[in-house]
Design brief:
Bound molecules: flavin mononucleotide
Order of helices and strands: HEHEHEHEHEHEHEHEHHEEHHH
Strand content: 15-25%
Radius of gyration: 19 Å
Number of helices: 13
Mean pLDDT: 95
Oligomer: single chain
Distance between the termini: 27 Å
CATH architecture of one domain: Alpha-Beta Barrel
CATH superfamily of one domain: Aldolase class I
Shape: globular
Structural class: alpha/beta
Helix content: 40-55%
Largest sheet: 8 strands, parallel, barrel
CATH class of one domain: Alpha Beta
CATH topology of one domain: TIM Barrel
């Protein structure tokens, strides 16, 4: 068995899905519900306001997953924590120390891929996956020794990429034999099957999980997702200075007009636009996958439905083919 196969096997997944870390949205209830239903749940360390609070969360999460394992009589998939490795995140070192102390099974790093961090996580048997939007950054992360890559492609929620996923996955598979997660616009079990067929090992799904009962998201945010199509998603640097995908109606409601969406830098909301809207809190991010999201439901129910859709997608294709 290759190292990649060993990692995938040890994940104990019932469906090849990672519920992606989302600022504000993914907190303990969502992570727990994901792991208990057979997929990998994750959250950003920064979703707790302090490093101490973050460590408390980890202790609680470990205890409740242990209880759930005892109740279900089987091993559940692990959980993951997202760390933003950048000079603008003053907590990164302290949060990493907490992750090492609590032996977080999977660390997902964004922005910086650092060899020392990878070595520190490997020292207790943890794994590191790293977010990339192009081959250049994938090569740097591979050189740092990461176990997996998250290929953030065009249309993804948050700071999405610009590449089409089909050539992106194949190009990276040629240079990397670790775990490949595909991020961007995957909303159903059939989409998960498509990601596998492109050559990804795991589907990395964000936006779909905003519309679950366990997500921390306002009703109006979830309703806007149900009402939106691909044409409502704007890729703009105006909100945070880094291009990201946001729902156009939330920008308009906050007083951010179309004229500034093409800006290459963050717009000054307060001074220039007289708006007190806050990025992520009032300016809502979502990927183009909103097009097929029509409901808000309990996480366990969503995952059960996706398992059925995944199986049906594979069977549907096999049925008419004359191999
Ligand atoms: C509201 C929102 C918040 C996000 N916050 C983060 C974050 O804090 N860290 C991170 O690495 N990715 C973040 N992402 C990106 C997701 O982890 C994931 O890559 C993306 O949502 C996948 O694309 P999809 O939304 O089209 O499924 C966020 C995405 C959304 C929609």
């Amino acid at each position: 068995m290759t190292k990649r196969e060993q990692i995938l096997k040890q994940f104990n997944l019932q469906l090849p899905v990672v519920a992606a870390p989302m600022f504000i949205v993914s907190q303990l209830d969502l992570v727990k519900a994901c792991c208990e239903s057979g997929i990998l749940g994750t959250f950003p360390a920064l979703n707790n306001r302090t490093t101490e609070g973050f460590e408390e969360w980890l202790i609680q999460l470990k205890a409740s997953l242990k209880e759930a394992e005892a109740a279900q009589g089987k091993k559940l998939p692990p959980y993951g924590v997202n760390l933003i490795v950048h000079r603008t995140n003053p907590r990164v070192q302290a949060d990493l120390e907490v992750c090492i102390r609590q032996e977080v099974p999977l660390i997902i790093t964004s922005l910086g891929a650092v060899k020392d961090l990878v070595d520190a996580v490997h020292s207790y048997g943890g794994l590191v996956f790293h977010d990339v939007t192009n081959k250049y950054h994938a090569q740097k992360a591979i050189a740092a020794g990461v176990d997996g890559l998250v290929l953030v492609s065009a249309g993804a929620g948050g700071h999405g990429g610009t590449l089409n996923p089909i050539p992106f996955v194949s190009e990276i598979r040629e240079i990397f034999d670790g775990v490949i997660c595909l991020s961007g616009c995957l909303s159903s079990g059939a989409d998960v099957a498509s990601a596998m067929q492109m050559g990804a090992d795991l589907a990395y799904m964000g936006t779909r999980f905003i519309n679950t009962q366990e997500a921390v998201a306002k009703d109006a945010y979830q309703e806007m997702i149900v009402d939106s199509g691909t044409g409502d998603i704007v890729y703009t640097a105006a909100v945070s200075g880094i291009p990201g995908n946001y729902m156009a109606p939330s920008l308009l409601e906050a007083g951010i007009p179309r004229e500034v969406w093409g800006n290459k830098a963050k717009v000054n909301l307060g001074e220039k636009l007289n708006s007190d809207a806050k990025a992520w809190v009032d300016l809502w991010s979502a990927g183009q996958g909103v097009a097929t999201i029509k409901d808000v439901l309990p996480t366990a129910e969503l995952i059960e439905r996706m398992k059925g859709e995944f199986r049906a997608a594979i069977e549907r294709q096999a049925k008419w083919l004359n191999f």
